[in-house]
């Protein structure tokens, strides 16, 4: 069974630009969660999607958005990038809920210059 | 704010020794999970312990949960260099009626020296 696939693995963007990250969950998994990980803040929850609906949302500004498609694949978008958005963005897929077990992708390393 | 707080922040031991890391939390939980993350990569689920359980084992891992002290510990026995990683706890917390959220700690960085 294929694992969680995140693309791209690395990305360099300029301040003010926007970026879209993609996540393909494990086949059959309906829940996809997104996290931002930085050395100082640890793992910060962005949002969770289940069956194309946002089920939970963290405390991030509206520049961060996401969506989930009917095949459970998910994308997250960050508009008007700031230097502080530089981080490892992790996607996690779960059968129904991440609250019992989540399978993580390798992450997308975003650098904003 | 993060509910789960791991301690120590960093731990360095010799191969073969045991490693113990702790996670404290502030509110009642449904369950608590431990994850491992190798440098700059995704997290791997290690073990889940439910709020009504006190101890669980998985291979060289032993997890305990003390709900009265709101704390959990992860013990790795007979450590190996391959255990070098960061370890995170995540608490499943009820809130606002029937909702639940997962709160992550900042992690313990474990270095196992050969």
Please provide a written account of the structure.
The complex is a heterodimer of chains A (113) and B (114). Chain A is mainly beta and 113 residues long. Chain A has strands at residues 5-7, 10-13, 19-24, 31-38, 42-50, 53-57, 64-68, 74-78, 87-94, 103-104, 108-112. In chain A, a hairpin with a 5-residue loop joins strand 7 (64-68) and strand 8 (74-78). The termini of chain A are far apart. The mean pLDDT of chain A is 94. By secondary structure, chain B is an all-beta fold. In chain B, strands 2, 4, 5, 9, 10 and 11 form a six-stranded mixed beta sheet that branches. Chain B has a five-stranded antiparallel beta sheet with strand order 1-3-8-7-6, with no helix packed on it. Chain A binds chain B through residues 4, 33, 35, 42-45, 56, 88, 90, 92, 97-107, 109, and chain B through 2, 30-31, 33, 35, 40-45, 48, 88, 92, 99-107.
What keyword list fits this structure?
heterodimer; A: 113 residues; mainly beta; 4-stranded antiparallel sheet; B: 114 residues; 6-stranded mixed sheet; 5-stranded antiparallel sheet; globular
Distance between the termini of chain B: 37 Å
- Calculate Rg of chain B over CA atoms: 14 Å
> In one word, what is the shape of chain B?
globular
Most extensive chain interface and residues per partner: A-B, 23 and 23 residues
The string of secondary-structure elements of chain B, in order, is: EEEEEEEEEEE
Q: How would you characterize the largest beta sheet of chain A? A: 7 strands, mixed
- Ranges of chain A where pLDDT stays below 50 over 5 or more residues in a row are none
How many helices of chain B? The count is 0
Q: How would the global form of chain A be characterised? A: globular
H and E order of chain A: EEEEEEEEEEE
Indicate the structural class of chain A: mainly beta
Multimerization status: heterodimer
Helix content of chain B: under 10%
Query: Roughly what is the average pLDDT of chain B, rounded to an integer?
Result: 91
């Amino acid at each position: 069974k294929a694992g969680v696939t995140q693309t791209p693995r690395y990305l360099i963007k300029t301040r003010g630009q926007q970026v879209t990250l993609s996540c393909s969950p494990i086949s059959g998994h309906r829940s996809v969660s997104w996290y931002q990980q930085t050395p100082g803040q640890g793992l910060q929850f962005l949002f969770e999607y289940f069956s194309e609906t946002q089920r939970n949302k963290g405390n991030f500004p509206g520049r961060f958005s996401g969506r989930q498609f009917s095949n459970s694949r998910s994308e997250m978008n960050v508009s008007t990038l700031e230097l502080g958005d530089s981080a490892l963005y992790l996607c996690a897929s779960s059968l129904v809920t991440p609250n019992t077990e989540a399978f993580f992708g390798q992450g997308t390393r975003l650098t904003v210059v | 704010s993060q509910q789960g707080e791991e301690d120590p922040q960093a731990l360095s031991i010799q191969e073969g020794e045991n490693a113990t890391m702790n996670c404290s939390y502030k509110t009642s939980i449904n369950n608590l999970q431990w994850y491992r993350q190798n440098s700059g990569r995704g997290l791997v689920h290690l073990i889940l312990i439910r709020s009504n359980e006190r101890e669980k084992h998985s291979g060289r891992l032993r997890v305990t949960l003390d709900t009265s002290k709101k704390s959990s510990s992860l013990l790795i026995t007979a450590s190996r260099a391959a255990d070098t990683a960061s370890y995170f706890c995540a608490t499943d917390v009820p809130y606002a009626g029937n909702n639940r959220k997962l709160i992550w700690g900042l992690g313990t960085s474990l270095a196992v020296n050969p």
